[in-house]
Amino acid sequence: MEIIIHMSDIMIPMVIFFVVGYGTVSGVKVYETFLKGAAEGLKTVVEIMPTLIGLMVAVGVLRSSGFFDMLGRVLSPVTDVAKIPSQMIPLLAVKLFSSSAATGLVLDIFKNEGPDSYVGMVTSILMSCTETVFYTMSVYFLAAKVSKTRYTLTGALLATLAGTIASVILAGMLV
Prior knowledge:
- By secondary structure, the protein is mainly α.
- The chain is built from eight helices and no strands.
- It is globular, with a radius of gyration of 21 Å.
């Protein structure tokens, strides 16, 4: 076990040294290539910044207006049957758009319900097995200039549903 722990400590530096060494042996100007990639990355950040700001503002407005709380109350009869705590509805909705805003809701849930409660367990598992669907699609498709998304949204929403169901089942097994 000690060996595995020490291997994990040096794995990332080993990968970096391998990439730099392989590039050098192959005749690639490693530093210049790195700078070129960093410059392209900065251009991508500038291109997607308006999308990021728009998503953050929209989530902030919906959260502050009380819309998410109302949504949780309206959907609670359905979620109670599925054993999904009503506090999860705002979290699920926000998580589709912004992981940072969802983290704020997670902290609220932990403060009110406790991290070891059923709701806290579902929250923890849910945050690790769902994705910020609309954020990811808008940022990466914009950066890659993808215009035909085909079934991406459907697949991503189905994966989120599967992650939500798995969260409820796993938390039920843990509590």
